[in-house]
Specification:
The chain has helices at about 5-10, 20-30, 30-55, 70-100, 105-145, 145-155, 160-204. Helix 4 runs antiparallel to helix 5 (about 105-145) and helix 5 crosses helix 6 (about 145-155). It contains 7 helices and no strands.
Length: about 200
Amino acid sequence: MDFNELQSAWNNDNPKNVVLPETMEQLKAANTPLDKIKKNLRNEFYYQGISIVILGFVPLIKGFPESALVPFYLLFAIFTAVCIYYLVKLFIFYRRLGNTALNTKDSLYETYVDIRINMELYKTFGFALTPFVILFLLGVLFYKLPAGAAFFSGNIDNSVLVTLVCSVVFSILFMGLAGEWWVHYFYGKYAREIRKILDTLKEE
């Protein structure tokens, strides 16, 4: 074959006909759920930050008792510190996802494990906020309900006490279930998509 024949063969070669290995296509497919997880995390930072700022202005609401200002801001400071701790950890996770290159099965597996670990971290974040919900309910009870003062003085009717205990238990269960649903809806289903791709690669 002379030079002209070589050149003709080169020109006729169509790069569109090059077929990528199936595993590469599957690894690329994992980027879609990963992008959705990153997008949801980014939105979480915005919403959480805005929520913290709004909560800080609650005492400006008309009718907020002045005697509750110090307890409120003390509780708010602890609440903010807890939020910052978890949000920083989730932000580090978000940055790590941004630098992830899904070019091998091992890198995809490491990313999947990282996602699962941080999903559990997010659930812990939800449980960490539960005491603040309960303390808020106790604050409302003290300032708004006639039986509130009696509760803190120890002179409380048994039916009111049972109602209060049931409310606390319900609040804890609700926060736990809500956290589970939230993590499943915004992150869990995408993690499962990545897991399916891993299982497919494992079978080959």
